[in-house]
Amino acid sequence: EVPGNQESRAGIGRDPTQLSALVDELQRNLGGVGRNGPAMYALSAIDIALWDIAGKLAGLPLYRLLGGAARNELPAYASLLRYAEPAAVTHYVERALKRGYRHIKLHEITVPPIKAARAAAGPDIPIMIDCNCPWTIDEAIKMARTLQEFNPTWLEEPIWPPEDHAGLARVRDHGGLPTAAGENAMLPEFKSMFEHAALAYAQPSITKVGGVTQ
């Protein structure tokens, strides 16, 4: 049994617009199971739902609740799968461009398909490379230097383990390419990455980091 008022602890009957108080209480109550991973993913879902309720009660979209928008449009990039074959990459880059995308993200970790992507896209289309943590620090530095000729906008999650923020900073410093990371990171990890100057682009995921409030 849960001691005390079970309904209060479950949040039943509470004011859903008291976002900060509710989220803080939830995080503190669940601190014993860790402040990352599945527990934080669940809290992210609850937080997003609370913001959705707040928006419906106010009759406003989320961006208005957060203070409004500074622009009317945002660029979108085509995020391709990992194909490994240059011909396949050429096909999907060309298809994305025909659909109107002007930014392309690859998930390739070898030179030939990346070279094919740049050839298909031309020199002016931004290309990002998401590696999904395949390399050691030294391997990542070597690959970053090799990939410089294709002018990628960023090199995303190049090292394993991803928690080695000092190592990621070395890749940024010695590889010669902007780095990106954070899809699976929690707030303390972002603090560490910033302190190590490991990132050019921070990439928090709203569904993992704790929701809109974070």
Can you tell me about this structure?
With 214 residues, the chain is of the alpha/beta class. The chain is built from nine helices and six strands. It has helices at residues 6-10, 19-29, 38-58, 62-65, 86-98, 111-121, 137-147, 165-175, 187-195; strands at residues 78-79, 104-106, 127-130, 155-156, 179-181, 201-202. The protein has a six-stranded parallel β-sheet with strand order 1-2-3-4-5-6, with helices on one face. Helix 8 links the parallel strand 4 (155-156) and strand 5 (179-181). The radius of gyration is 21 Å and the shape is globular. Mean pLDDT is 92; it is low at 1-8.
Quick take:
This protein is α/β, with parallel strands linked by helices and 214 residues long. The chain has nine helices and six strands; from the N terminus they run H-H-H-H-E-H-E-H-E-H-E-H-E-H-E.
What is the number of helices? 9
Strand content: 5-15%
**What coarse outline follows from CA principal-axis ratios?**
globular
Average per-residue pLDDT, rounded, comes to 92
Largest sheet, spatial ordering of strands: 1-2-3-4-5-6
For the secondary structure, the number of strands is 6
Biggest sheet descriptor: 6 strands, parallel
The helix/strand class is alpha/beta
Ends apart, CA distance between termini = 31 Å
Low-pLDDT residue intervals, each spanning 5 or more residues: 1-8
Order of helices and strands: HHHHEHEHEHEHEHE
